Amino acid sequence: MAAEQQSQTSTRASSPKLDGKFDDNASVDSGFASGNSSTANLPLITLTKPHLDHLNKQLENMEALDILRFCKTLFPNLFQTTAFGLTGLVTLDMLSKLAKDSPADAAPVDLIFLDTLYHFKETYALVDRVQERYPNIRLHVFKPADVSNVAEFEALYGEKLYETSEEMYDWVAKVEPQNRAYQELKVAAVFTGRRRSQGGARGSIPVIELDEERGIVKINPLVNWSFQQVKAYIDEHQVPYNELLDKGYKSIGDWHSTSPVAAGEDERAGRWKGKNKTECGIHNKQSRYAQFLAENARKQAKAEAAAAATAAPAEAVQA
């Protein structure tokens, strides 16, 4: 990726470390929090439920471009989170057009990209092409704490953490970097690429959501669009897109958990195929991972106590 066009953050944040291998048998959607959440000091936007309901009712039938324009005016500290999927690319292109039409209208919307280190090579190539197409868009890249490549990641956490401990992998590769991004950039609201037509937990999401655990507002500007509408926009406006789309992929994440989609399948059917899982944790409640960390700490404390008890008689004999 072109270094001069991005702001890459490499904070040495506190992150759970693994001694040996963990097997959490995770088979359902993960959602996470740490004991000292990195989002505790975020700026707050307060919306009462009646006000939120009113906003969503008004925005429901608005065009996506108008939703973007409205939210740019309404929300401070506004960013776009993206893994450079089709919906996010449409949003990016629309935001770029708004910036050109009214350069002094509002602050620019920077991008946040969570680089898990396990994206497809086609995804990384797309990031470069996007930066070439939209040179005025600032990109903030957040990687897992304390590492910069796969070799360093696996030296720290072991090989194939995404298989041996899905919960831990989702935390260190996605959720903790996201929380760190929100804190360091002082994020108050984000545009996402989620749509109802993607199915699963996304089937009933509104345009605007309050993520009270993380302290931010989530905005889904293309919530009513179908995959066909998104792809038609991409083609019409010649927006760069991931080459894997032409090979049967529709929703693209990490290479180890993404596969092509068969005809007639939901567009996210290729994510975590064969598992009872539809999200990686960044859009779920955080309490599940808090429980995982607490249980993990309990097991470690128990193991340490057992080791100490075993070592004590041996030391006494030697004495």
- Count the DSSP helices: 9
- On the 0 to 100 scale, the average pLDDT is 79
The computed structural class is alpha/beta
What is Rg? 21 Å
Describe the protein's architecture and organization.
- The protein has 319 residues and is α/β, with parallel strands linked by helices.
- It has 9 helices and 7 strands; from the N terminus they run βααβαβαβαααβββαα.
- It has a 7-stranded mixed β-sheet.
- A hairpin with a 4-residue loop joins strand 6 and strand 7.
- It starts with 5 loop residues before the first strand and ends with a helix.
Give the topology, please.
Layout: E1 6-9, H1 49-59, H2 64-74, E2 78-81, H3 86-101, E3 110-114, H4 121-133, E4 139-142, H5 150-157, H6 161-164, H7 166-184, E5 189-191, E6 208-211, E7 216-219, H8 227-236, H9 287-318
Parallel strand pairs: 1-4, 2-3, 2-5, 3-4, 5-7
Antiparallel strand pairs: 6-7
Quick synopsis:
With 319 residues, this protein is an alpha/beta fold. The chain has helices at residues 49-59, 64-74, 86-101, 121-133, 150-157, 161-164, 166-184, 227-236, 287-318, and strands spanning 6-9, 78-81, 110-114, 139-142, 189-191, 208-211, 216-219. The longest helix is centred in the C-terminal third of the chain and has 32 residues, at 287-318.
